[in-house]
Write a structure and sequence with these properties.
Elements lengths: L2 H17 L8 E5 L5 E6 L2 H4 L6 H13 L9 E6 L3 H9 L4 E6 L24 E3 L4 H15 L3
Parallel strand pairs: 3-4, 4-5
Antiparallel strand pairs: 1-2, 1-3
Enzyme class: hydrolase
Cofactor: Zn(2+)
GO biological process, one term: tRNA wobble adenosine to inosine editing
Length: about 150
């Protein structure tokens, strides 16, 4: 793991923790440019926006596309997210043409980067990002577990 990826995951974890302030599931995502510079970051905002598509990954990809300089294509970029992307977010990373998807905790209930489905490596698609799993996985999982315990009053 490079220092850029570790620092990016730290930032994604900070963003994830902030999502709890407005009642959203603590998931954070950042997009790194081809040289490793931070292009954009976001936290889940589904509750905040009342938008089912306002996942951290989608928001970060949208923001990164605004500054990357190649329209919607994020060629050479890396998506770093605290939880394995769902099908929507995995699909968005493929369609955005990111080179790499890095995530923390596996999501056996909805993960689409290898756990439940494997959208990002589906050979039928015209682009397949490299996937790196388990970066700061325990920190990501701990944040999520604490959030859901509090939601359930446990």
């Amino acid at each position: 793991m490079t220092a850029d990826i570790d620092a990016a995951m730290c930032r994604a974890l900070e963003l994830a923790a902030a999502a709890q302030e407005w009642g959203d599931t603590p998931i954070g995502a950042v997009v790194l440019g081809p040289g490793g510079a931070l292009l954009a970051g976001a936290a889940n905002e589904r509750e905040k926006r009342g938008d089912p598509t306002a996942h951290a990954e989608v928001l970060a990809l949208r923001a990164a596309a605004q500054v990357h300089g190649d329209g919607w294509r994020l060629t050479g970029c890396t998506l770093v997210v605290t939880l394995e992307p769902c099908t929507m977010c995995a699909g968005a990373s493929v369609l955005a043409r990111v080179d790499q998807v890095v995530y923390g905790a596996d999501d056996p209930k909805a993960g689409a980067a290898g756990s439940l489905w494997d959208v990002v490596r589906d050979r039928r698609l015209n682009h397949r990002p490299e996937v790196t799993a388990g970066v700061r996985a325990e920190e990501s999982a701990t944040l999520l577990r604490a959030f859901f315990r509090a939601q359930r009053g446990l």
